[in-house]
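#data-curation
PF: Archiving a pair of folding outputs for the training set. Convention for this channel: one message per protein, sequence first, structure tokens after, nothing in between. First:
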Amino acid sequence: MPRNKQGSTRTRNGKMYARVTYQDDSGKIKEVWRKAETLTHAKELRKQMLRTLDDYGEKPLQAERMLFKDLANYYIDNYLQPPEYRGNRKIAGLRSYKTAKYQFQPVIDHFSSKLLRSITYDDIEKYRLLRLKSSTKNGAIRSIATVNRELAYLRRVLEIAKRQNWIIYNPFNQGDPLISIADEQKRERIITLEEEASLLMFCTGSRTHLRAILICALDTGMRRSEIFKLRWCNINFYTRLITVEALNTKTLKQREIAMTTRLASELLKLYQSSASPKEAIALQLV
């Protein structure tokens, strides 16, 4: 906590200023100047700075000239980094850090040159409306879900700034909720049996390899990334179970999924075409 705090009003080059000096934790004397319109304004600024030092320490004062791009760079350097694992557990970084950077970029582009502590609830609301009215690069209507993800990143970085005492409060909390998941259009489309048959019918020739992938997705509900990362050691033809390894799941928790008869048959064909003759013969008895 800063010590030996003192405040004063000064005139410099014909301009009125509020000035505060204090001693930081290392014993170094620091000073902060704020330009004022009048002597009364200078006295009010002096009181505000002293009060901020008492309540929150020196970081908010030092961050008054901090731009949003500085916070964004701090967030990218410390949070949006490749994941690090210890065994089957993630200990640092973000698995989808590349996607997160892409989704965060519009926020950076909009607020980049704005003073961090000047961002208000109204500024965020205007950004939300602006993004909802804008079109995608393909000319399509931008979805509410896309804007919600951008706002979620903005809320996250502002909360980090608050935790670091660079801002005193998060402007997201100064009004009604700006992120409404209920407004997002839910995808409840279920493929019909006719559509499924038509889809599988075209898995011939150069598309033959897609048949097993599609049947796996249809019969198990596994995510695309989970399917693409499967190895033969994850398939047990005797118990008819698929083991999805923890590192390949969204929740980082291993799980087992039962195979349907047609999925087991498709995977068995694939395995027998790639396995050694001895292994292929053994699996014919399954």
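PF: Second:
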Amino acid sequence: SLNQQLWADPRASLSYKFAHEGQLSLAYGTFSQLPEERFRVLNKALGNMSASHYILNYFISNNGRTFRAEAFHKTYDNLLGYRGTHFNPTAINLNGNGYARGMDFFFRDNKSFANTDFWITYSLVDSKRKFMLYENRVQPGFAPKHNGAIVVKHFISRFKSQLGLSYIINDGYAYTNPNLPGEQNNRTKSYQDLSLGWSYLPKPQLIIHFACNNILGRDNIFGYEYATEALPSGSFAERPLQQGAPRFLYLGIFLTLSKDKNANQLNNL
């Protein structure tokens, strides 16, 4: 059986509210997490992975507008590492470590334009970690450095409809190309997704919703899979990891059952 463990993670936060209704917050905390059970079964002595978070946040919401800015620094210790392969790990240990630092910005406005709600987000993430099969600190494949999004929703009263448009972009995903020296030594082209949605309300509590993502059919790539054996030339053949389909279409009907006959899920679409 797996060993039982007991631990404590101290956390603290401090906030100051300004006269103009803005709020500045500072937070610190430690966090612990056990490795996946499949690794703990192979090495029953595994303890916790741990992280420390330092977060500075400014937030203000006034007159239909919201702004949030956040800076963070996170350190990671005792990250899971192993040899072999992902499906056949050996020499399982907690010798990994790393960090993540950066900033997030969020602005939302449903006041400046009639019947229109829009928001803009941007995040910068500088992260390096030694974990899993990596022998050095590398940028994780799941953490692009630059990420942004724009979302616009406009309600057309005459047609009882809401139109939604979103654009999501990042600067690409890091991956390891065995044909080049080093780890996480390459990056995919930028990920971009322009999506469109339309919601029609024949009755306030009834919504017919249609959505299409990646309407431009961009060929987004999330990384590459390589052959385990080299070709006679010495290089490894590659296959891109792509979306299952260039576009995804969705048609749904949402019926809200409540005492308030005007309640619906429009804000969530």
